[in-house]
Amino acid sequence: MTDNLKSAIEAVLFAAGDSVPVSKLSLVFACEEEKILEAAEALETEYIAQDRGMRLLRLGDRLQICSSPEWADVIIRALDERRRPSLSQPALEVLTIVAYFQPVTRAYIETMRGIDSSYTIGALMEKGLIEISGRLEAPGRPALFRTTEAFLRVMGISSPQELPPLPDLKTSDGTEKLRQRVEELQAAENSDQITMSELV
User: Fold this and answer.
1) pLDDT digits (tens, 9 = 90+) for 63-122
2) Which of 158, 196, 194 is nearest to 69 (CA)?
3) In terms of DSSP bridges, do strands 20-21 and 54-59 run parallel, antiparallel, or are they unpaired?
4) How far apart are CA 118 and CA 86, in angstroms?
5) Which of 72, 139, 144, 194 is the most exposed place for a label (fewest CB within 10 A)?
6) Torsion, CA 6, CA 9, CA 10, CA 12, rounded to 10
7) Model's pTM, two decimal places?
8) Residue 107: per-residue pLDDT
């Protein structure tokens, strides 16, 4: 691994302003994907060790440079952006179900919530946090929903497998615990970013 490769990756990711497939970086730099990932990991380690204002995220098989979360308030003030609206309690519940049990159908979501969720699912799709990933091989071929790359970016994780353990929803205690955490999150007005770790 060379400093030139790290610098090249940094330059491409910064210029892209979005996530870039590791396979594409491998092709551009004519080296194995493992080398790209090693260089990216070294770059992220440098960012953290030097307390830099940037972070390097791995989003599945893609890489992206973003600002450090601890500077979110400063960035919002500097760019004169409005505070991002928080998700409603129904949206948090649906997003949690999709994140932990994906891919899932609308019927599955509604069975867990005990209420029609079509509007909430549509709202989360508009926000780009969930998407249709295919169709279930069953009568009517219902849509299957999963979380998106944008969801991973917001949560600061590389894959859904990195989500913290979910309470046991088969027991009333587990369901109540999840509901309490969602309500606590709703009441926290000073939170700019919702993370799944805050839900459990």
Assistant:
1) 988 888 788 778 777 776 555 556 788 888 898 889 888 999 999 999 888 888 989 999
2) 194
3) unpaired
4) 19
5) 139
6) 160
7) 0.53
8) 92
The two three-digit tokens of residue 81, written as one number: 């952006």
d(CA 96, CA 102): 10
74 vs 56: CA distance, rounded Å: 19
Q: Which two tokens stand for residue 41?
A: 């990991």
Query: Would the CA dihedral through 186, 129, 160, 15 be positive or negative?
Result: negative
User: Is the per-residue pLDDT at 28 higher than 60?
Assistant: yes
Measure the CA–CA gap between 170 and 161, rounded to whole angstroms.
20
- Pick from 172, 170, 125, 173: nearest CA to 151: 125
Domains of the chain: 3-77 (1.10.10.10), 89-198 (1.10.10.10)
